[in-house]
Each structure stands twice: as C-alpha cells, then as structure tokens.
Automatic annotation (TrEMBL):
It is found in: Nucleus. It comes from Chlamydomonas leiostraca. Pfam families: CTNNBL. Keywords: Coiled coil, Nucleus, Phosphoprotein, Repeat. This is Beta-catenin-like protein 1 N-terminal domain-containing protein. Gene3D superfamilies: Leucine-rich Repeat Variant. InterPro entries: ARM-like, CTNNBL1, CTNNBL1_N. GO terms for cellular component: spliceosomal complex. Residues 3-60 form the Beta-catenin-like protein 1 N-terminal domain.
Amino acid sequence: GEEVEEESLMMARLDAGLFTLQQAALIIGHLWALGDAGLRKRVLAVMHQKGAPLSLVRAVVLEYYHTIGTDGPGGAEEAARLRARAAEAAVALGASDEDLVVEDGGAGVIKAEPGVKEEGTK
C-alpha cells in the first residue's frame, strides 16, 4: 500500500545520503543553539559560500524530527530523547511550536528561545 511505498522511498533516500545530511544539519543546529555570535557568523559565512540558507538546515532538522519512529532499539523512550534534541536544534534555527506538532502525539511541543533571523547573528 501507500505506507509501504513511503517507507521504501524513505529507505532509498537514507541510502542516498539523507542520514548524513540530517546529522550534519543537527550539528549545525546545535552549534547555532549555543548562541555564540562568532560561531553564528562563521556558520552563516559557510552556508552563504555553499549557497544554502539557514532555513534549509531548519527544514532538514524538522524532517528528521518528524520521521523519528518508536520502532528502534530504544523504543518510545529513545524516540522522545532524539525528538527533544532535534526540537532544540530546530527551535534555535527558528522553528515554531506548530512546526513541532507530531501527528501521533509522541513528542509534544518544546518551548525555547524565540526564532532566529537568517541575515544577522543577533
């Protein structure tokens, strides 16, 4: 059915490098969350060199957040831990509460500092 097709598509995307991209986006998000102005300037400079806006990193982190399942070795507890870390990075990158709503009711909404502007470092 449609669910099997979606799962096959996700597995193909992961095989093509999606997991690595998601992990890199999470690292960038966590660096951004530190709030260091110099570090943020450097992140923005590198992103600009690559022609990639910070919103792209946020989108990748949010996709990761929404695809975390509870089927893994750690079950629901591990999924909640991974979602909390991803939510922290996503919020630091400017994600809204609405962006963090999970269909299955798994994670809930995590509050953090207000959104981030892409152009500056403040």
